[in-house]
Amino acid sequence: MISAGQLAPFAALTFLMVIIPGPSVLFTISRALTAGRRDALLTVAGNAAGVYTQVAAVAFGLGTIVSNSAAVFTAVKLAGALYLIYLGVQALRKRRKLTEVFASEVRAAPGHTLSVLRDGFVLGFANPKSIVFLAAILPQFVDTQAGTTSTQMLLLGICLPIIALICDSTWAFIASQARTWFARSPRRLELLGGTSGLTMIGLGASLALSERQN
Q1: Would you say residue 84 lies in a domain?
Q2: What is the reported pTM?
């Protein structure tokens, strides 16, 4: 089991990391503005699941491989970057459809929920910065005398997705409030869709060009 002395400082460090807006926050805001609160919150949930998969990877040793291997780190980084760029290109191509959706009140087709969750999951799982953070910080809070190392990491690591859920959901609610203003003008909606696409492409490019932190 874990103690309050382990949990509190790790949670504090995790909060500091999450509170600084990064790709997940910007992606969530983009989703809230273009697709609405529901899709933004689903993205947040998917992202949290992806991040906890990283926690599990660190707990069972895979995080060390990513942290220590430049090739694996680069592969994970590029996979996430390419997926973000793909989503950005799709957003640019479909930017004019935003007006049609608001005008006709078209509802999402079955299966859309899973695709939105998938997008958030990939974003969370393929973020190399968070897995390196976990690989470097999480083991320092393990008490080898208190039980199994992997179990302690899994329990401590739950702080990250929980804090991310709370903080990113707050961003989703705030951004979704601004969506009504954009909905009043077809031109604003088209501009919003284009900006959202460019933001995701920019995030992908930034991630691809980011250097490894040692």
Answers
A1: yes
A2: 0.69
